[in-house]
Write the structure tokens for this entry.
Amino acid sequence: MPRSCVPSLLMLGMLVGAGQAQDATKTPSGPPPRLEWVDSLNEGGVLTVQKTVFTTVTVPVEEKVNVRGMMVTVVKFTSRTQARTVLVAMYLKGYDVYNVKGEKLSPDEVRRRLKTSQGVLFSADGRKVDPRYLSVVKDDTLIFVEAREPARK
């Protein structure tokens, strides 16, 4: 057996033999939550957060090229990803807010616990965040999930 196969076979053996232990190290389901920063909360229930957005920008880049034995400067364009911070305002009543233990918080409790410059998490898919993601955040972190309207009959 070639030597390069031995590590692969050892890894396969560990995965097959792991049984129940494999579930404890399973990766989180669903997308990771977004981290945003509280900017302000007014008395009308409007929460303003600082959100990082990524945009693609086209930038000129000068390059020296050899044209018939002469070095000539040409301008080429390339795309780069650029991060910037924007302020987003939202109504608190449009979100269900949970603590790290998964307990839903009342609007009064949310108002009491929200602080300026506090990091908060937003569900990326409108569902509760997988607890495995939350194992790396502080106990006082608030998790926002878009409130779903009850089904109509």
Remarks:
- DSSP finds four helices and six strands in the chain.
- The longest strand covers residues 46-67.
